[in-house]
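[SOLVED] Need 3D model of a four-part complex

Original post:
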Amino acid sequence: MSRPNLDNRERIITAANRLFYIKGYNQTSFADVANELEISKGNLHYHFRSKDDLLKAIISFRIDMVKGNLAKWEQAYPEPIDKLRRFVQMLINEEADIVRYGCPIGSLNMELGKFQLELRDLSRELFELFRRWLEKAFKQLGHKDSKALSLHLLTMAQGAALLTYVYADKKLLKAECNKIINWIEAL
Amino acid sequence: MSRPNLDNRERIITAANRLFYIKGYNQTSFADVANELEISKGNLHYHFRSKDDLLKAIISFRIDMVKGNLAKWEQAYPEPIDKLRRFVQMLINEEADIVRYGCPIGSLNMELGKFQLELRDLSRELFELFRRWLEKAFKQLGHKDSKALSLHLLTMAQGAALLTYVYADKKLLKAECNKIINWIEAL
DNA sequence: GTCTATAATACGATAGAC
DNA sequence: GTCTATCGTATTATAGAC
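Solution:
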């Protein structure tokens, strides 16, 4: 591992987060996570009593990551239009992963909604963090329908990520992101 | 059942198709399907040797359904712009299911891509059927970038379905469909 | 074609030694 | 905190009677 000083709990979260994204939650077993880190399943159960428990920790971990990124962007991009541009840039930056595994937030929400009804609210918060931040930027640009605009931007981003993944075509992502940027600047 | 004269193979396909949509493929067991139809698991295995086999049959079943619908629309809507409108209308018609379970094509592609690499081509064909049909309509309207337009329309539709599902909000679907219709008519 | 019974495996979870 | 060993269960799949 690149960060050997992490304690196991953090290492488990890091590894499980990646595996849940790449393989999906249902297709990832405790054995998979344990093998990845070369620790025992019993150790895993010491840190997380159940798989449900681990999932909750992963979602919370992702929520914290998103909050952290948004806080950085808030500092780095004072202009609201640059905030919107930065959101789209995220898709470009994550191109390689999106092509192979889709959007981590969209795919998790899709998967959980079909069986984990209690966790839908928590995973939806990943969308809401971005949406509220985007809504604020639209509002600062003087738009009255800023909430609808934020939802529309998320819609286009999710659609772009899904189609890019299905067709495994990075050109598709680039083309859709250009359309989104044009839409933002034409508003 | 509403159609008691169907033989078991067809009844299995109908039931499994619905369960794979509602619960997801990985969360649907042979026992689930058998219980739904009140038949034995052994009977199920007589008609489909493996779960993989059943999945292939379901995808083929869906492909045939889409082909059938497109053939009907081809007859009913000679004007290309009406073809595009009809595609969007499909989302409105399926509102209740989309709110609860998402888009059947999008969610299946998302789920399969994460572990069933061999079946990605087959499930992608569900997108391609719609895309080629839409591309033809755009072409008839005189657009040179008809392929890009077809992909963009699919992108917006998938994004709308996903957000509608995540927020469980039918108003969101309606709003996004209106935006899509406006985009089509403004082209 | 449909059933019951059962094999074989994988998984989530627990107990107890260290 | 980490390990090994094991339990209980669910799941896919097969065998054989009817």
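Edit: Chain B touches chain A through 36 residues (CB under 8 Å).
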